[in-house]
Specification:
The complex is a heterodimer. Chain A is an alpha+beta fold. Chain A is built from 13 helices and nine strands. Chain A has helices spanning 3-8, 66-73, 84-95, 121-128, 131-136, 145-163, 169-177, 184-191, 195-215, 273-289, 313-330, 364-367, 397-402; strands at 13-16, 27-30, 36-38, 118-119, 226-235, 240-250, 261-266, 295-300, 305-310. Chain B has helices at 10-24, 36-44, 46-50, 60-76, 83-101, 109-113, 117-136, 140-143, 190-204, 231-257, and strands at 32-34, 147-149, 154-157, 164-168, 172-174, 177-181, 213-218, 223-228. The chains are: A alpha+beta, B alpha/beta. At the A-B interface, helix 6, helix 7, strand 5 and helix 13 of A face helix 5, helix 7 and strand 7 of B.
Chain lengths: 404, 261
């Protein structure tokens, strides 16, 4: 079941939880995979209350401070443990059908040079789009106000996490973007905006920056917060490389227990594809480190909404299936892919396919065993409140390895 | 599999000097500095080695390693709880020191000091992200004196071929091991590349003592690999060095003989 359905259907279990955990007056819903989320958008795209759709409590307000952190770290589920068998099966599923003799053509970059083709969440989404949405997709824009706003909010969030302050949002954001030569065209484009367009951009960036500043607490340094964390998973000996970048990662990496939380920050409206993107990030972190993150989340700077997915084997299996379907499309090279169809189109609001149960089945091994058993969320049975993003350090492999 | 060696074998030295003399003995122009980066590019982007380097300009990527290592050291000393807390004060201390004495610990101090608030934050954030997996990879405080985080580069100039210099830069020395941290994922030649660091460390040591092994960390892909330093690995590294220098030398010769535009 996709996020839009979670948001819109009245058939889901609905639970009211206290404001401390989910937000004052907020309605939370759960689905069968254990996801719990804040629902609804406080405004339509135009800023007016939506005429229909998500249910909003009148006094809803975005989570802020400790409540926001609690929402991230208290998922209502036990944190996943390292499961080498599941990781091996996920990896085998992803690599199924890929050649083992070097880079493959993916219709993407750098194939002619022999470099490893890179597959990102965005490329997967495009590859899996149904014909209607693929045709309607104009492709990545080079310059637009929303793109500029997104880039600016991205660096401002990074600044906030790193320094704890944001002064003049537009000036400081442009300052940071100007350091990145890949952003030079965008910065020049912003510099050339007409005064009213620039004022519009500045107003929105300032509004979102103020939201970030007022809602995000300072993250304890011992939780090891880092931004723009790159996750990379080479497949089939370098035939393809799965890559994503996480806006915020918290928790000690590469331990035997799950201590990592991943947060994606978005400046635009909530879209169904964001759930798939979270799954992709969870999948890559799991395969990369051998331990799943305990939570993946999307924070919407425009509204202050926070979508949180506790990472479960079901979520990872669904992400692996989707990823493999996308890889089949990208590497099809004229052959008809076998696991592709409209069900994987993340933009299809009409999709009725459950990401776990109804997805095209390609590898029964992935769903066998305890990993695929459905689990119900238990809001009442939370982990210990002392479960900070970073737990005890545990064994440190490098120490053992080099100091022997 | 050859046996581990304690010092750089004479045969390895002879192979390296002989190879470099053949490929670059008559080379003129600016010195050729072989680094781990150029060694990698010799297989992934060989044409880039033949091109002259562009003018140097500071970028955040050039700061994150040195600042990140300083942050890890400061954390290991118990001054801070993590890189996110350390990078700001460490950078500020360096800038203050430069302003007070003119001494540049990291070289980037004037550039960093001239940046705006947002740009400085971006630089600090890059250093935090770089340093965090390094800090998390070992209990540096517990290692105490056995671990040296950062430190000077290993340098070796080829006898008889003064235009060629080998530079090895590892991120830490822990007991008999070197630790190298790289972006991306290990390539097909990862072992030789780690061996290169061992080779240069041995060549630059007054007694030609070699590290026992080189540990490579690739945080982005979560890989950690160890290359025990033995003669076979050193020979493979030597051959990579000679091949890389040959690429540069051929490029220069071609440029020298190219008709003027």
């Amino acid at each position: 079941m996709q996020t839009t359905e979670l948001l819109d259907t009245e058939l889901l279990d609905t639970v009211q939880v206290d404001g401390e955990q989910v937000g004052a007056g907020r309605v939370a819903r759960t689905d069968g995979t254990g996801r719990v989320r804040q629902v609804g958008d406080p405004r339509s795209a135009e800023g007016a209350p939506a005429a229909h759709g998500p249910v909003w409590a009148a006094d809803w307000r975005p989570l802020a401070g400790p409540a926001l952190l609690d929402r991230l770290r208290v998922t209502g589920r036990a944190r996943p443990a390292a499961d080498p068998d599941l990781v091996a099966r996920l990896l085998a599923h992803l690599e199924h059908g890929l050649p083992v003799d070097g880079p493959v053509a993916t219709g993407g970059r750098a194939d002619a040079t022999g470099r490893t083709p890179v597959v990102t969440a965005e490329r997967l989404t495009r590859a899996l789009a149904c014909p209607a949405h693929a045709a309607a997709d104009p492709g990545p824009a080079d310059r637009s106000l929303p793109l500029a706003c997104g880039a600016l909010v991205d660096v401002l969030f990074r600044q906030l996490v790193t320094t704890g302050t944001i002064g003049d949002p537009l000036a400081e954001g442009l300052d940071a973007l100007a350091l990145d030569e890949r952003r030079t065209p965008l910065v020049e484009w912003v510099d050339g905006l007409a005064p009213h367009e620039r004022a519009e951009l500045e107003a929105e960036v300032t509004r979102q920056a103020e939201g970030l500043r007022s809602r995000w607490p300072r993250l304890d340094p011992s939780w090891l917060p880092r931004t723009h964390d790159c996750l990379r998973v080479p497949l089939a000996g370098g035939a393809v490389e799965l890559v994503t970048r996480v806006d915020l990662a918290v928790g000690r990496p590469a331990t035997s227990a799950s201590t990592v939380a991943l947060v994606d920050v978005r400046s635009g409206a909530r879209r169904p594809v964001h759930a798939a993107d979270r799954g992709f990030q969870a999948l890559l972190e799991t395969v990369r480190s051998g331990v799943p993150p305990f939570v993946v989340a999307t924070y919407y700077a425009r509204t202050g909404e926070l979508d949180v997915d506790p990472v479960t084997p079901e979520l990872l299996v669904a992400a692996a299936r989707r990823c493999r379907a996308g890889l089949e499309v990208l590497t099809a090279d004229g052959r008809a892919p076998t696991a592709v169809g409209a069900p994987w189109c993340a933009t299809c609001a009409t999709s009725t396919v459950d990401l776990v149960a109804g997805a095209p089945t390609a590898d029964p091994d992935l769903t066998s065993g305890p990993a695929a058993e459905p689990r119900l969320v238990e809001l009442g049975s939370r982990p210990s409140s002392s479960a900070a993003p970073v737990d005890d350090v545990g064994p440190l492999p490098l120490l053992e390895e080099v100091a022997a | 599999m050859s046996a581990d060696v304690d010092v750089v074998p004479g045969s390895v030295c002879d192979r390296l000097v002989g190879g470099l003399t053949t490929t670059a003995g008559d080379l003129t122009g600016p010195p050729v500095e072989v680094t781990l980066s150029s060694l990698r590019r010799s297989t992934t982007d060989p044409d880039s080695l033949a091109r002259p380097d562009g003018p140097f300009a500071w970028k955040p990527a050039f700061v994150r390693r040195s600042l990140g290592l300083a942050a890890v050291r400061a954390c290991a000393d118990g001054r801070y709880r993590g890189p996110a807390e350390a990078v700001g004060p460490v950078a500020a201390e360096a800038v203050d020191e430069w302003r007070r004495t003119g001494w540049r610990t990291f070289h980037w101090e004037p550039w960093f000091a001239g940046l705006g608030v947002g740009a400085r934050a971006a630089v600090l954030a890059g250093a935090v992200t770089w340093a965090t997996p390094v800090w998390a990879s070992a209990d540096w405080a517990a290692l105490g004196d056995r671990a040296v985080v950062g430190g000077a580069d290993d340098l070796w100039t080829c006898p008889g071929v003064p235009t060629v210099r080998l530079k090895g830069r590892c991120e830490a020395r822990v007991g008999p091991a070197l630790v190298s941290v790289s972006c991306g994922a290990p390539g097909a030649h990862w072992a030789e590349e780690l061996g290169y660091l061992g080779l240069v460390a041995g060549l630059s040591d007054p007694d030609h003592r070699l590290p026992a092994r080189v540990v490579g960390l690739w945080p982005e892909s979560g890989d950690r690999r160890t290359a025990p330093v033995d003669e076979a690995l050193l020979v493979a590294a030597v051959d990579r060095v000679v091949a890389a220098v040959d690429l540069v030398a051929c490029g220069r010769r071609a440029a020298a003989h190219a008709p003027a535009a």
